[in-house]
What we know:
alpha+beta, six-stranded antiparallel sheet, 4 helices
Amino acid sequence: MSLNADDLQEYLNANIPITRAMGVTVADADWDSVRIGAPLAPNTNHRDTVFGGSAAAVAILAAWALLHLRLTSEGIDSRLVIQRSRMRYDRPIDGDFTATSSIPDAAVWHRFLKMLTQKGRGRLAVPVTVYCGEESVASFEGEFVALAGGGD
């Protein structure tokens, strides 16, 4: 089964309720990357910029969604969780924003799949860039663990 942006949007809205409150939308989703957006208004802080936790949540969602898309497309039943994350903010985010995830190295993906299928557990770091308009405003890296079986 291959997922697209609409499928991911439906899954997030049904299974991760905060995505609706944050106004999260899946802008693009394919094998190479996932881009998730959110408006400023429901994610604002006391300075009328994006609350840091909202930016981090959208970045986590972009990374998680890419792994979910790939695992589902490969027919691999697993439970996918975040283990560790690091976020760097380069400037305040003063408008609607997006987070784009990718897995830059095919060999890393193949090692992850091999560990998951052979050992029942795979671990993978996924980088994400957060944009406000066309400008990169933050970066994120999350380490995710997939456990065989259990489904998301």
